[in-house]
Amino acid sequence: MDDQSITDRYTLADLERWGEITRDVDPPIRLGVFGDPVAHSLSPQMQNAALRAFEINMQYARFHIRANELRSALRFIRELDFVGINLTVPHKIAGLPQIDVADESASRCGAVNTLRLHENKLIGANTDAEGFSRAVRSEFSIDLRDLRVMILGAGGGTGHAIAWQCALENCERLVLVNRTPAKTSAACRAIAVVSLPNRA
Q1: Entry pTM
Q2: Is 121 a catalytic residue?
Q3: Which domains, from first to last, does the chain contain?
Q4: What is the pLDDT of residues 30-45, one digit of tens each?
């Protein structure tokens, strides 16, 4: 598969003229990540390597989408020939009410990072929580229930997801730290609902 070079990052204005902007891009861009900022994301390098390895005829790109542009950007990917989108900062929490269906992982932790399109519906999931748990188990050969965990930056989507997973797996102790006390309090209330049945 001979990739034609794609732009470092696209914008909402590019999505509005997608057919014209990507006319000569081959394979087509049908996957991507929405974020603000997004230039630092290594997802395109990883995902495009995997797409090439499995001979899947599409590309993955970065999209610089501001918070007030998310609704419009999600509308465009419904209309265009996209397969799915990842959401990163600051869209993981804001994206949840804007999708059609959320799986259990996204609903419970209140954040979504993976969207796929099926019959013109956006279906959301959150892979942060399970990914964190698997990484700890794989790297350290220990389960979350045997750990004391402190999360710095617990107010965002990833922090919510990891805190939820720690509570779900009954970690020994969970400490949430965030620069905005109101966000920390909200996260604590949400986690208490998840964790109380497991603490009985």
Answers
A1: 0.79
A2: no
A3: 10-126 (3.40.50.10860), 129-199 (3.40.50.720)
A4: 999 999 999 999 999 9
